[in-house]
Amino acid sequence: MQISLRPIRASLALALLAGGFPVHATTIVGPWTPIFKGVAHCVGTNIPSGGDFPNLHVVHALRVDLGDPDLRLLTTPRISGYVAGSREIGGLTVSDFLKTHHLQAAINANFFDTTTYYLPPGTPMNVYGLAISEGVVVSAQDGPAHAAAIMFDATNRATVIPTNWPAANVTGTFTAVAGNYPLVLAGKNIVPRATARETNPRTVFGLSEDRHFLYLVTIDGRQPGYSDGANDYESAGWLLLLGAHDGVNMDGGGSTTLVIEDSTGVPVRLNQSSAVADSGRERTVGSHFGLFAKPLPGFINDVDARPDDTTATITWTTIEPSTTQVEYGLTTDFGNRTDLQPASVTNHVVQLTGLTPDTGYYFRAISVLGTQQYVSANFSFLTTNYVTTNQVFGITNSWRYTATNVGALDWTSPGFNDSTWSGPGAGLLWVDVRPTGPNPSVEPKNTELPLDPTNSPYPYVTYYFRTHFVLTNAVPGSSLAFSGYIDDGAVFYLNGAEIFRLRMPASADGQTLATGFPCNGDATCLDEFTVPTGALNSLAIGDNVLAAEVHNYNPGSADITFGVSVNRIEPIVRTAKLDVRYTGKTITLSWDTSGFVLQSASEPDGSWTDIEGTVGSPFTVEPSHESRFYRLRK
Questions:
Q1: What is the pLDDT of residues 244-281, one digit of tens each?
Q2: Which residues touch 94 (CB under 8 Å, ≥6 apart)?
Q3: What is the Cα 590 distance to its own chain's centre?
Q4: Phi/psi of residue 609, each to 5°?
Q5: Could you give the CA distance from residue 601 to residue 108 in angstroms, rounded to a whole number?
Q6: Distance CA 138, CA 130 (A)
Q7: 621 vs 309, 531, 582, 630, CA distance in Å?
Q8: Nearest Cα residue to 252 out of 391, 352, 111
Q9: Alpha helices by DSSP H, 409-534
Q10: Is the peptide bond preceding residue 459 cis, with omega within 30 degrees of 0?
Q11: What are phi and psi of 193, to 5 degrees?
Q12: What per-residue confidence (pLDDT) applies to 595?
């Protein structure tokens, strides 16, 4: 699907909202436009005309067909490594939630706890009210607040509970979110005008009377001349106008964000978030609601890419027999085109060759029927580099630390006694004494470091850190990938041996200053580096000690920050799958892994021979009366 967003025009249909707005407030509502199978988009606004409701609104809504068999729902899953009593989820922007889970649409949902909003992805947070993701209770309803719940079973049958306290039995519930209170019940606006609360951006969810449709609605605000925002009475009115019979208020304000995926996997914001309007950045939010949906059907359907390291197999179907060709390249200008396969088929297979590992490509499918050419939307894929990623420890890992100059000691070795050091303290470890206060975008702040009493009121120039991790096995060709928030420079050691310098000169002592700093001087962007395990002669099976010294850029710098995660990157064994497709009398064999050759034999245990010219997929054959068997050889 290719998205084209247009401004709201006066040519949209006019409607009056009975029971929602007073009759003098005219609403302008666009048509429901299908954007995915089972999902339609609508844009609305109003013409303020005084009275009780002078606010200007711009509304974006998705109408979701809960009866579509291909539609799946997803809410924010529980954070990896969750321990009872700890924070439940890892925060993401709505766009990142969509990208992370390869969704077709996503919106913010429950209220959540935070003191600041522009946080690193994965920052632990708590969700308010009931939240269930794929049958797992992420957040239980534990009180009368935030108790307006919408629940779905595994077949997307929906239930609204206006006040989920005492908490309802959630047996059989597969997906659930909760807002703070209901707005619409049994087709009625239940919000008194006199207590409609303040005007703000709003996120509201609704269900049709027959529970066939789910409505996901954003009302933009805090942007004079574009959209002022809505109070609860107006929000309920929009739900009724759009078709909801019951509805609830979800988290709003700067968190209000509705995003869909374009055909290349890129998030496209439908609404204009007040946070983005103010800062250019989406907020990191703690609760999301997402949709998996299939593309709209057309002449070309079921487009799929199965990438390898240097090849990719592209497949699609057409509703009538037609030719086969693919355009592809590093941008949407493509620049490359495969040879035309003139045979008319309905199951199409093309293998792209000569690709670069771990690289993103764009492509589109082309089929010709007679004189009519059909072209798919633009799609994308990422070639593999045949590795898996396993976490050693995360950004909130705990470290022993000291600011005492330990340069003369063997402080990086496994046998060093660090029991007199402070901690262990969880990352990020930080100090920030700026008069304006610590930068709220440096998160998660967990362990505050001491100041230097001889250089008051500033931090020490250098701090020292140690942590342990266990390695159970060593895989040839693997590496350790480091990712962290580091202000300003650092030197890393593994079991006493130096392994990496970040913004530091070739030699350093406790008073050596870093040679640079991250971002604009704050640890708000990740520093990343990878070290092959083959180059880590000090790496041990069993217990390992990672040590780091972190240096400031100048003695008068008011802040210093340290937190690092480590992942193991390991190669995987490649296997190939032989795919068989039939179109009339034509049989097409294809495989999605490079480095394999197709072989044939007359008997399964007979003599197998290479088929000349089939180093790459696909291979087309006409059936004969003689049985033939095929396999792939590495």
A1: 999 999 999 999 999 999 999 999 999 999 999 999 99
A2: 106, 107, 108, 257, 258, 259, 267, 282, 285, 288
A3: 31
A4: -130, 145
A5: 57
A6: 8
A7: 26, 47, 10, 11
A8: 111
A9: none
A10: no
A11: -60, -35
A12: 67
Res 13: pLDDT? 39
Nearest to 145 by CA among 160, 164, 132: 164
> Which residue ranges of the chain lie beneath pLDDT 50?
1-24
For the chain, state the CA radius of gyration: 29
Predicted confidence at residue 613, as pLDDT, reads: 58
Residue with tokens 């050889």: 633
CA dist., res. 106 & res. 123, Å (int)? 19
Domain architecture of the chain: domains with CATH: 13-292 (no CATH), 300-386+575-633 (2.60.40.10), 390-571 (2.60.120.260)
Cα–Cα dist 634/630, whole Å: 14
Cα-Cα-Cα-Cα dihedral sign, residues 499, 500, 506, 509: negative
Per-residue pLDDT at 616: 59
8 Å CB contact between 172 and 209: no
Residue with tokens 């898996």: 388
Query: pLDDT tens digits, residue range 377-390?
Result: 999 999 987 777 88
The number of beta carbons lying within 10 Å of the beta carbon of residue 91 is 28
Written as six digits, the tokens of 425 are: 């303290």
pLDDT score at 52? 54
Could you give the angle at the alpha carbon of 602 between the alpha carbons of 352 and 621, nearest 5°?
Answer: 35
pTM: 0.67
Smallest CA-to-CA distance from 275 within 397, 403, 118 is with 118
Distance CA 461, CA 514 (A): 9
